[in-house]
Write a structure and sequence with these properties.
The chain is α/β, with parallel strands linked by helices and about 450 residues long. About 35% of the residues lie in helices and about 15% in strands. The two termini are about 30 Å apart. Bound molecules: N~2~-(3-carboxypropanoyl)-L-arginine.
């Protein structure tokens, strides 16, 4: 089985609106000038470099933005241009939400279980409801449309709608889920929550806990995973208050290896021992102590938001953000981990995804991992997979359509709307799918 990565293609309206409470980068870069073209090219380059490691690489297209349908649902009326102008005048935050390119962070698109792990032998994906943040709560219907286009072959896949977003179940998808394997290579699913929905137990004091235990349990049930292959542990609420809004900001795992900060989980070493007992022989914990790297440094460098990829020839490889290379202390952690022969992490590559980082999205946020065997791989819609010529086409498409810079006031420009929809129209024709977006007449997915 190979791990395919489906990266979110950064959308033409990528901007900094300060929409995510508890996300330090989003808050501190609010209203900065963004560079959508550079952002999309940085993301594409990452896809090409990971693909060059021998892993199948796909992409998930941007969502329709500005989302005039969302503004209409908030009461704005008239033509698209009128709706955008009225929102810009009366409710700029609603316009900023409707313009957010946040669907680029596909680690939040869904939680995935490969065919080998599910009760009926189909790869299953449960869309995340993203209920904690209003600008992200509008993503699930489009995410489901896209996942059903990519993984539409029902003999091999089932893409399921998100949990209800009007209840207490907050679900942020794969950012709070890690698939490990035991010595017999059976899949084990580690779910990490920020708090319980029933109000019991510890919870952060300042920032929202986006993932609830009850949501993780429901996702595991919908994925049809055997209960004994699932473990539910809690993120330390204190680190959420320091800016660790998803578990993938403080831990990353693959195969039998878990790279984590010592303050990541409630219970500290007890939690790691519980994981160890559960995974059994072959578990390789790689702990980073606070003396080596503080939680604050983990948040500013995004060391734990590196991709930990399992190379087809064996061994694990880190794909780190450039910010790690530029931090003496974070880079020293990487060097120490690579030099330590007791873990299978053998190599590293540093990549610049700064435009995404400035909104709190590192390399791991930008990808959804979908482990696929050859049979499942053959059932993926080929229009969403990359190779060198297709990457070159995408580069040209980005250069033709994407604005170089966006300032907050530019979101109100009706030409940005037209330009974005033209780009998506051309993209879907090239992929070979029809009626993917509301503006193309796509039906409600549920
Ligand atoms: O949900 N930022 C995203 C970043 C998501 C990172 N994903 C993972 N850790 N897996 C978020 O907070 C900021 C948008 C803005 O402020 O304009 C934003 O949505």
């Amino acid at each position: 089985m190979l791990e395919a990565n489906f990266d979110g293609l950064v959308g033409p309206t990528h901007n900094y609106a300060g929409l995510s409470e508890g996300n330090v980068a989003s808050q501190s870069n609010a209203q900065a000038v963004s560079r959508p073209r550079l952002a999309a090219l940085q993301g594409l380059w990452k896809m090409e470099r990971v693909m060059a490691l021998g892993l199948p690489q796909g992409f998930l297209p941007p969502h329709e933005r500005p989302a005039c349908w969302a503004l209409r649902a908030e009461g704005f009326t008239g033509t698209d241009a009128q709706v955008i102008a009225a929102a810009a005048r009366d409710r700029p935050t609603a316009l900023a939400r409707a313009c957010s390119a946040s669907a680029m962070w596909t680690a939040n698109a869904a939680t995935v279980a490969p065919a080998a792990d599910t009760a009926d032998g189909r790869t299953r994906l449960v869309v995340a409801n993203l209920r904690a943040m209003p600008h992200r709560r509008m993503e699930p219907p489009q995410t489901l449309r896209i996942l059903r286009a990519v993984f539409g072959d029902e003999r091999g896949f089932e893409a399921l709608p998100a949990l209800p977003s009007d209840g207490p179940l907050g679900d942020e998808g794969a950012a709070n889920h890690t698939r490990l394997v035991d010595a017999r290579r059976r899949g084990l699913h580690l779910f990490v929550h920020g708090a319980r929905a029933d109000g019991q137990g510890p919870r952060p004091a300042r920032h929202p806990a986006r993932q609830t235990l009850e949501a993780s349990r429901e996702v595991a049930a919908r994925l049809r995973l055997p209960p004994d292959r699932c473990l539910f542990i809690q993120q330390d609420p204190a680190v959420i208050d320091e800016g660790v809004f998803h578990n993938d900001v403080i831990a990353v795992g693959s195969e039998g290896t878990l790279l984590f900060h010592e303050q990541a989980f409630v219970g500290g070493t007890d939690a790691i021992e519980a994981i160890h007992r559960w995974v059994g022989e072959g578990f390789s914990p790689v702990c980073v102590r606070r003396e080596e790297l503080s939680v604050q440094e983990a948040v500013s460098t995004y060391l734990f938001n590196s991709q930990l990829v399992h190379l087809p020839g064996g061994g694990l490889f880190l794909v780190c953000p450039e910010e790690v290379r530029r931090s003496d202390r974070a880079r020293a952690v990487v060097d120490r981990v690579l030099a330590d022969a007791s873990n299978p992490i053998h190599g590293v590559m540093y990549l610049d995804v700064r435009e995404s980082m400035r909104n709190g999205g590192g390399p791991a946020c930008l990808r959804l991992r979908v482990p696929l065997d050859a049979e499942a791989m053959a059932r993926v819609h080929p229009g969403f997979m990359l190779d060198a010529p297709r990457a070159a086409w995408l580069r040209g498409w980005i250069e033709r359509h994407y604005p170089e810079e966006l300032r907050p006031a530019d979101l109100a420009d009706p030409r940005l709307h037209r330009r974005s929809l033209d780009a998506l129209d051309e993209l879907t024709r090239w992929i070979g799918v029809e009626r993917l977006y509301p503006f193309q007449g796509a039906p409600e997915p549920w």
